[in-house]
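Let's see one such:

===
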Amino acid sequence: MSSTTSLRVPGPGPRTRLLTPIAEDQKPKSPTFYEHHDVVSGPGSADLARAHLMMLFSQALFAGNYVCFKAFSRHSEDIFGKTSATIFSLMRGIVSLVLLPIIFYTSPDRHYEGVLRMKKANIKPVLIQGLAGAARQNIVPYGLMFTGAASAGVVQPFVPVCTCMLAVAFGLEKGNKIKYLSMLIGCIGVFIAAKGYDFGGVDLGFLILLGVCRLLPTEIVVVENGILSRLVYVVDRVDVITGCSFAVCILKAHNEAHGGNNKHYERRCSNMYIPTSYLISRLGFPGWGAVLYSVFFIILISWRIQLAAVKQLGPIAVGLYQVTQPVFCFIFAYFLLGEPIFPHQVVGGVLVCIGLGIFVYGQYLTALKKEREAEQARASENERVPDESPQPRGEEDDAMEAGRASENVRPRRKHSRSVGLHFASSASRKCTYTPTNSLLKSQMTILRDCKTVKSAEFRRAADHITRLLIEEAVDLGWIRCQEEIPVTTPTDETVDGVRLPEDGLMAVSIVRAGESMEGPVQEIFPEARIGKILIQRDEETATPHLYYIKLPSCKSSPHVLLLDPMLATGGSCMMAIKSLLDSTDCDIKEEDIIFLNLISCPEGIENLTAAYPKVRIVSGCLDRCLNERSYILPGLGDFGDRYFGTQ
């Protein structure tokens, strides 16, 4: 009797278990992270726990900042505003650079093990967020020296500029004209704001920085059902708003207690990373109490949102939601400090609020669309699954049922099922698997069996599975059909039917293995146009290289089927998608691409959905993992050689 091991697949929402026989020499040497800790299974959730340890090191530097604050403030108020924040941010950046590669270590067998290991793919996003925060920590005090507390948020829009620069420099996101223009506008705005140029009482730097808000969309971090919840987001926003207001109140009272002659109290607000810690210290708690408070709230709420979002939305989108902070800053300054509100601040606040309103309304429409799609999917499942409502039973029926139960007969599965690997931050990030039934298992068994040496037998099984993949894409509505077409039967009756799209569909195969899937596609869609992409993977480094691409000329295509039977690391598929999006022969959008493959693995799914969240995936089977040579396990060997008989 073969033993089985329960593997949990990273993905948001409920945990998913895949029971797969594993040989003794292939089992992990130590329990996985998810068996050590009761965490919500999500993309990078194990990495979040490791990142929290990094934040503990980072927040330990807060104590050093507090000591610098006490030391410098005794001698000179002027030196505090510049030196303390600079020292803190430089220390934070250095420690981040040194500790991140050490703490976020990737184990050779690619399993989440231990407490101090993290996937390499998540190092860059976390590092970018840390460096962008350090840059902001340096810039904010200088901005306050020239603009005052009312414009305390004047340099907050520079955060997306920092993240944009770093993301493009690290190769984490692709640069384009909009991003480069945003960088330029942001840099000019910060320079002018620091110099204090104005025009008729209007801060030119702040107005220019608002251009960043208009060029790049404002994003609010709301993860629906993954690592975070809406409640955590609301608590974080309340903590930030009340923290700022409490700190400003205390600083105002402190200033008034000294006769109103303290001209530098605004700078203290900028240097308290979590302003409410200043309030706690003023209420009688020692300095370490303020530090512990800051560590607790940053680890529990703020950094969890930042790190979860940066891996689901990208570093640029995460930095953008901070453009709302200038609105709160000048409102608090008006009510608590009595500083005047200028026209440019009102205009900026209105623009930001309009942008937020559009974003929230867009999220509402997306939620409605997702709900309608779910209802349609449920209706489709109900139509395909026979009615299993209880019928009147007799003694013979009971005896037959008992006999079936004793034989351990499995109940009938519904047609479509999702294993929950789609990412919760976007409703369009979908990965669906064809139903596990005896027919699919029989064909997959032929492909996997090393005794299948006849190419004809292998080809018949592969073609059959490809047809099932296309059927799944049609059933999900990803390939839109022409519905309610009246036809007349030979008995002179009229019925409403459905026709598959006769034109407008393109299939692109990744040579050579992908060509094996062209036949079933053309059988179902005779008018489909075929494109070719030649990408070869280096056997040593697993790095893909593009050699050839030829696509049909067309203005647009509502459906593009990308064909490749195996999804391992996802490198070849991602390069093919990039080539499709960059092609000048045809205007292809990311959401138009449907990737069909027979066998996939968790690593490839995660890499592909992270790079191209709008691409939809239909896979025949999800295998366990990759080995050290980036081969799928258990897999089926070299698909191309076995299909074309060249092994």
